[in-house]
């Protein structure tokens, strides 16, 4: 379940990411055509969108790895284009896979990398993580003394996460973090993300193609298509916004019934149904549009040219 604090709103002092009218052009190709959004402390944001929508480009601009063409961007109070070492130490980046240092052992590498963050400790934020604590957090305690080249794909991915957060970052970028995880590892990873957001107040921005994962993890989902934001809200808000129909299903007298409620709240229909003959009704279900339905509808709309880049319906901008 997404955390109950789910909200796109935040106060000015809470703002961790502020992006306004971000544009990116590669040669003659416009990849981002005016992206505006924000994120606050402790918020988990999922960036979704079809291949080539501009997700990695957006994240790389926020990380300070790529220079934007236009627009204003503030990350932890600084423009990423001019972020210094102290700024960088507050940010964790989980890249696709750590392929170097195959002969190093897990604990050894984390100890080594952690030392770079020691000068950036503050009275309120001790850096880096204690290595044993970090190993426990990512579920690698048993593999602490194993050589990196001998780790399985999933264990290696956990190490990627550990490397990304070793400096105890306030903001974490995760690019498809659970690719290659088995269902158990995936669930443990989701717990880790929630723990980092809830107990460390870390802000987390991740990209994923797994809609169920986005729904489970994210307080807020941003859907990017064709270079602009087509939706920005919690999974529930997105489904409600898009849902032109809710389906009510029930059984009565041994027969299964389905009714599409095309406008308004299905609660009224359910109330009337139960008022008619509550005892006869069983197996009652109300099904709203899933995040997958919403995503496909929105992306198809953009791809068919019906969406011309107008303001997104649920735009929430920290100001
Ligand atoms: N360095 C570059 N030079 C030119 N074009 C680029 C460059 N990097 C990305 N692009 C183009 O910009 C567009 C957006 O790419 P980006 O990698 O940001 O998309 P994405 O949403 O992350 O895609 P995916 O889901 O496939 O990872 C693509 O059309 C891509 O070909």
UniProtKB/TrEMBL annotation:
Give me the segments passing through the membrane: none
Q: Name one GO molecular function term.
A: ATP binding
UniProt entry keywords in alphabetical sequence:
Antibiotic resistance, ATP-binding, Nucleotide-binding, Transport
Major localization listed first in the record, in broad terms: membrane
Keyword match ATP-binding: yes
- Provide the topology term for how it sits in the membrane: Peripheral membrane protein
Q: Where is the ABC transporter domain positioned along the sequence?
A: 17-251
Mind telling me which SMART domains this protein's record contains? AAA (SM00382)
Compartment(s) where it occurs, according to its Swiss-Prot or TrEMBL record? Cell membrane
Looking up SUPFAM superfamilies in the UniProt record yields: P-loop containing nucleoside triphosphate hydrolases
Q: Which PANTHER family match?
A: ABC TRANSPORTER ATP-BINDING PROTEIN (PTHR42711), ABC TRANSPORTER ATP-BINDING PROTEIN NATA (PTHR42711:SF5)
| Family statement drawn from the similarity comment of this UniProt entry | Belongs to the ABC transporter superfamily.
Q: What is this protein called?
A: ABC transporter ATP-binding protein
Provide the species name: Georgenia halophila
């Amino acid at each position: 379940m997404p955390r109950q604090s789910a909200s796109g709103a935040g106060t000015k002092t809470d703002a961790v990411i502020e992006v306004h009218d971000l544009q990116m052009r590669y040669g003659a190709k416009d990849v981002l055509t005016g992206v505006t959004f924000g994120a606050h402390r402790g918020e988990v944001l999922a960036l979704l969108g079809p291949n080539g929508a501009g997700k990695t480009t957006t994240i790389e601009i926020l990380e300070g790895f790529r220079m934007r063409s236009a627009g204003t961007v503030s990350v932890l109070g600084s423009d990423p284009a001019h972020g210094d070492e102290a700024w960088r130490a507050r940010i964790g980046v989980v890249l696709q896979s750590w392929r170097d240092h195959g002969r190093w052992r897990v604990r050894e590498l984390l100890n080594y990398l952690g030392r770079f963050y020691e000068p950036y400790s503050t009275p309120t934020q001790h850096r880096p993580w204690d290595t044993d604590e970090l190993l426990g957090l990512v579920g690698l305690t048993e593999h602490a003394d194993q050589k990196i080249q001998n780790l399985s794909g999933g264990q290696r991915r956990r190490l990627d996460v550990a490397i990304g957060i070793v400096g105890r970052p306030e903001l974490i970028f995760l690019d498809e973090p659970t690719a290659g995880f088995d269902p158990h590892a995936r669930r443990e990873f989701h717990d880790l993300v929630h723990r980092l957001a809830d107990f460390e107040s870390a802000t987390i921005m991740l990209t994923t193609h797994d809609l169920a994962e986005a729904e489970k993890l994210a307080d807020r989902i941003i859907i990017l298509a064709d270079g602009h934001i087509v939706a920005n809200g919690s999974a529930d808000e997105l489904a409600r916004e898009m849902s032109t129909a809710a389906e009510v299903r029930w059984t009565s007298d041994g027969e299964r019934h389905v009714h599409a409620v095309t406008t308004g709240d299905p609660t009224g229909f359910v109330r009337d149904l139960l008022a008619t003959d509550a005892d006869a009704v069983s197996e009652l279900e109300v099904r709203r549009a899933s995040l997958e339905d919403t995503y496909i509808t929105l992306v198809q709309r953009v791809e068919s040219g019906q969406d011309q880049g107008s303001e997104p319906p649920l735009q929430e901008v920290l100001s």
